[in-house]
Amino acid sequence: MKTTLEAESAGFAYEPGRPVFTGVDASVSAGEVVGLVGPNGSGKSTLLRVMCGLLRPLSGTVKLDGRRLGSYKSNERARRLAFLPQAVNPAFALSVFEVVCLGRYPHMGAFGTLRPHDREAAERVMRDTEIEHLRARDFLTLSGGERQRVLVASILAQEPQILLLDEPTSALDVHHQIEVFSLLDRLARRGEGGYGILVVTHDLNLAARFCDRILLLGRNQAMLAQGPHANVMTESLLSQAYGAPIRVSRHPETGAPLVWAEAPEQPAETGSRPAKAGERPSRRRGLR
Amino acid sequence: MRRSAIASLIAVSAGMVALSLVVGTEQIDLGQAWREWREGLPPEQAPMLGIILNQRLPRTLAALIVGCGLALAGAAFQAMLRNPLAEPYTLGVASAGAFGAWTATVLIGAYGLPGLLLGLPTVQLLAFLFAEADIIVVYLLAAHRDRVSPSVLLLGGITMGMLANGGILFMRYVADPNRIVMMDRWLMGGVDVLGYRPVLTLLAGVAPCAVILLAQAPKYDQLGFGTELAAGRGVNVRLLTGVTFAVGSLMTAVAVSVVGTIAFVGLIVPHIVRSITGSRHRLLLPVSAVAGGGFLCFCDIIARKILPGETPIGIVTTLLGGPFFLYLLLRRRFTDWDA
What we know:
The structure holds two protein chains of two kinds. Chain A is 29% helix and 25% strand. In chain A, the strands form three sheets. In chain A, strands 6-7-8-3-9-10 form a six-stranded mixed beta sheet, with helices on both faces. Chain A is α/β, with parallel strands linked by helices. Chain A has helices spanning 44-51, 74-78, 96-102, 116-128, 144-156, 174-188, 204-210, 229-232, 235-242, 268-271, and strands at residues 4-15, 18-29, 33-37, 59-64, 67-68, 81-84, 162-166, 196-200, 213-217, 223-227, 246-250, 257-261. In chain A, helix 3 (96-102) packs parallel to helix 5. Chain B is mainly α. Chain B has a single domain (2-334), classed as ABC transporter involved in vitamin B12 uptake, BtuC (Orthogonal Bundle), CATH 1.10.3470. Helix content of chain B is 75%, strand content 2%. Chain B is built from 14 helices and four strands. Chain B has helices at 2-22, 30-39, 47-81, 93-111, 122-142, 150-174, 177-187, 197-215, 217-223, 227-232, 237-259, 265-277, 281-306, 313-331, and strands at residues 116-117, 120-121, 143-144, 147-148. In chain B, the strands form two sheets. A two-stranded antiparallel sheet of chain B has the order 1-2. Chain B has a two-stranded antiparallel sheet with strand order 3-4. In chain B, strand 3 and strand 4 (147-148) form a beta hairpin.
């Protein structure tokens, strides 16, 4: 049976009376890539943390394979679910191999000894993510794209079935964004051992291109829509979610949806004012 | 290469411990001490052996235990707070502990506070409570949700340290003048303990704490990449924070209450050791402990033999540690941690 992680009418609030979201249904199963999108402050990252057990839902439940997530021991949970937060900054220098081996933590005994099968698992995920040539490098000296691949390898070393990633491409250039998403795509579609991947992203175009399903969180603390991108990536749904005019057309070559935002109307008197130092000139900005 | 560097570090530390038994104001004739030992002479006919067993050995053991404890507490705080400048002294723990010990001493002297509270020596108990209070205040100042600001932490720690020093000055002002000389001497830190009682106190306070901190090593490794990644892998970050702070401050407080404030050991030692062992705490923590013991014996040798007339060891570590702290600030290796 495929491993499934699902939130059922889950709600969460950091402060009482101010819910981040309520009544949200979401799920991810082994073998699929699910994109979690929505405007800033819609609670994407919070939902991700609730679904990986870092935050306890205030209402509703999160279940892993039909069992309440909170009933798993923390290392049991970490052997099934792996979470990669946004912007990971290491405090101390470690080699790439050491970083990958950190992912073996949920499998280790109390003394943190690496056994032969831990090393084998580390080697395997380094092959899967194509970072073997980096093994002896200091993690701090890697480029952004390389770091992200190493971090993905380190969570794969937990040998989970489900990966939860919070904006894994937010600090990367166009090429490395595609590289990371292609890697996720490959990891999900490995037949038998394919991972289930839930990824938070701001990049609607990447989400449309690589995700089997899209979850769209709106500004009203609720899930606005979910399903294949054709159903979710519509001008009306997106404009409603972002509270601003969003346009959708077709990519001329891939045929995938191409999403961009209209620039807000400039009030007449500020439009002619020369930009002061330190002020960003206004311009039409697409959603990449 | 790394192995041989670690081996030499441990050998040097052991050498320092051995040297500390032999070097001092009184010249030790090892041959004579050996003869005295072999012939099983009574104490009054065995002056050399007497000096070694009654003065040098407890003093060396005190330096060893305190050095281990302070270095280990420093390494653990640094791992916990992801900051290489964190240590019992820069976080104000040592000064607060000293303030607690002064307060206890004054209260016992002037107001008849019993020397034992809840079965524990009052001086140690108050040193511990003040040290814990300091770490709690500093942590609350710097923590916001699940992030800890390194700069607020250091500023808070240094400020709390200054407050504690103000408190110490006040206690000094109201204290019985006859006790001031002794307490001043203690404030400068000194491992010149008499007999084995203080050594046993140190051992009883530091050893269990050391075992607890050493057992957290794999978790500290996880924290190196942030609390969320660690939590996602099943580390109970809140529990780890509590244990580290409670145990690290307890260890420091016990050390401070026996030998006075000895600054910067927890800063210098883990930093040097990390450059040799790398950042895996399974290696870093135990090697730091060993090197800390050796380092404090080394400082004690300097204090006893090189500087004039039995200089307090706290002065030596401060004069070594202050410039080292400045050097770390200049290198700015930690700026990217401020983010």
